[in-house]
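question for whoever is on the cluster today: can someone run the full assembly for these? two chains, 902 residues total. i dont have access anymore since they changed the login thing
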Amino acid sequence: MQHKIVLQESDIPKQWYNIVADIGKPMPPVLHPATLEPVGPDDLAPLFPMSLIEQEVSTERWIDIPEEVMEVYRLWRPSPLYRALNLEKAIGTKSKIYYKYEGVSPAGSHKPNTAIAQAYYNKKEGVKRLATETGAGQWGSALSLSSQLMGLECTVYMVKISFQQKPYRKSIINTWGAEVFPSPTDRTNAGRAILEKDPDNLGSLGIAISEAVEDAATHDDTKYSLGSVLNHVLLHQSVVGLETKKQFEMVGDYPDVVIGCVGGGSNFGGFADPFVMDKIAGKEVRAVAVEPFSCPTLTRGKYAFDYGDTAKMGPVAKMYTLGHDFIPPGIHAGGLRYHGDAPIISLLVKEGLMEAVAVHQLGCFEAAITFARSEGIIPAPETSHAIRVAIDEAKKFDEAGKEGVVAFNFSGHGHFDMAAYDAYLAGELQDYEYPDEKIKESLAELPKVKY
Amino acid sequence: MQHKIVLQESDIPKQWYNIVADIGKPMPPVLHPATLEPVGPDDLAPLFPMSLIEQEVSTERWIDIPEEVMEVYRLWRPSPLYRALNLEKAIGTKSKIYYKYEGVSPAGSHKPNTAIAQAYYNKKEGVKRLATETGAGQWGSALSLSSQLMGLECTVYMVKISFQQKPYRKSIINTWGAEVFPSPTDRTNAGRAILEKDPDNLGSLGIAISEAVEDAATHDDTKYSLGSVLNHVLLHQSVVGLETKKQFEMVGDYPDVVIGCVGGGSNFGGFADPFVMDKIAGKEVRAVAVEPFSCPTLTRGKYAFDYGDTAKMGPVAKMYTLGHDFIPPGIHAGGLRYHGDAPIISLLVKEGLMEAVAVHQLGCFEAAITFARSEGIIPAPETSHAIRVAIDEAKKFDEAGKEGVVAFNFSGHGHFDMAAYDAYLAGELQDYEYPDEKIKESLAELPKVKY
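^ ran it for u. tokens below:
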């Protein structure tokens, strides 16, 4: 039996897919954090190069991938689609489970798909340095690699709890020639303000975003780069789902359900959007976003305008949010600790075109171990959320007496997350569910807007 | 331009290649450590299953790969051959550089190619547990994965210096369900004897082998498994070189020189042997083995009979050796710290069919950084030795005004070696050359044999 469905370099999509063209509703406006009025390109220009701003607001269905970006994609793309024959056997399902393996990139995750595009457009417009934040370290690694390949400098603000849990992420970022600091730092006003109130603050994506945005806004030669959430990020990630569809065609199959973990939404969006395109066109397929119980943005948050960052310096967007002051506990899936979600994903969930489900940490690690011991590859804790639900969905088909086709995005390997496995195997981890009271509290801080 | 030369699963070789059939000289006998007389299959039976013993002494040119092994190979094989376009540009060479990327296996190196075969034959003959040693941790990881996939238990003795430098190797081995101990341990007579003399002993592959061999020899349901050196190991690794030749055919090219790092010789042998087959048949191709100056077995050792392990429990083989008491300094390329070398490689070097060269640690890390910043992938310190010489060889062609074709085996990624990169980037590493006196000393301890 065939495990891998392998494409050639010539099969890499030539265009990115923009689902905004197909939702049938306009995206809500993005607001200025100070005025709470819609932003124009000029407001975003201190942070992003114009070509990315254009992509951010584009309603074109297909956007050409520049040859310079394709050239770097060819270092690892197309990525394989696996039929998880061993996993199916291990859990005793009659359903078929497929996974798209994005861990083949040098950074070990899907993140370089957009990092390389962002570095390219910045370089083209004369930018010298990129500033960014990173949670689990996947994004910071990806952007440092991409900056190096495109000839840019790069500064990474890494959430302190992840910096401590994953010391070798720092080494990787340095190996690829970038600098990295544990956030909150004393390098920015945003960071200093937090440290003054709470010197032991473990950081959050929201805080780190504030620091990177401030760094970019206060340096002429520097722009900001975001690894998830934004429309242009999901756009770039669509190569994942587009390749996957081609691979399903090769074997004459099609998924009943596509699954991905969601922090900001980039891997899930990139994987699922091309399938949701089919769904909008009438095809029967479910798209399931998986988030941790400890940061339940889509399942317990509110669909509302909120700041993307803690210091209220970045744009305000309409999305599912737990409130910009929400700081989740230090679970090991650092990449899923964001208070908000991609506006595109949020709208698609709101419109019923995507579903969301929350899962517990222990069940995810259990699934990860089952996967590692059958398929071999050790998943990142983030990815284990998708595996958990893929297994659950396969079993639901079994219970219903059906043979389903389940596909999930294997967003990244866990080679830099082994301390989390240690903790799990030593029985040191526990599940955590956020109290209603706390969520209500942080949701009370949403900005009042007239849109 | 095409970066990756990609095969389909149906292109995985159906047979392993055994170069013993083509050397034109018989392999020297393997001797019993106590009697120093040639061993027969019965002597080896406490350590290995009969099918592996048969492969060990086989002179057949081609040996069928069992379907059960093929099934697991398909989890990651065939591995891609890369044209290192970015590296060529970075170093400004007119030569072509190719690398075979064995880091795609779940364990991150070429090691599972033989681990899975060994686990299969042991399982088939009723073995319940495998005991082994590991240097850098690559082999221990590979065997724990393979044991898990074949339904065997697994015990790993890991060289203490590597255990300390690479804590997450332990986590991986545990994640794949095996147990691992820092060697020397107090679990074996061999380990206890060393600890008694020197409680702070940092271990060596020789010591760890002694422990694993003793564990297997003293437990009925347990066999021993070796990740390098032996004929059957190089046999299994030949899939690497056979695939590479197919990939060169696909693009209508052929290497002038094939390069690999050498600890015990398995990745180099597996990669180079199929090309040496062509060389024996009259084709012009050089095969270059690269070792560290700090453990210069092929370049400064003696071609003689020696014990494979420190405690003189394992077989005695004719090979290049620095003496079985030789303990190299704790360089970061833990996988290259073996006092001996594969008898096959040793004979091929002796016969002039392979060359050997020693390189310094700092030059290797410099090459590794150049590679990581151009091609993306972060190499294991072992692999960096091959990269160093690949770059050097490409430049030699440039100097001679020729456009050479250089190919090397990228034996594994460095995701679990980031502490070594930290040390290098912080300027903490230095080069080391073993004093003549020390080598003379340990070579004085070779056994006196009549063969």
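summary bc i know u wont read the tokens: Chain B has a mean pLDDT of 95. The CA atoms of residues 228 and 266 of chain B lie 5 Å apart.
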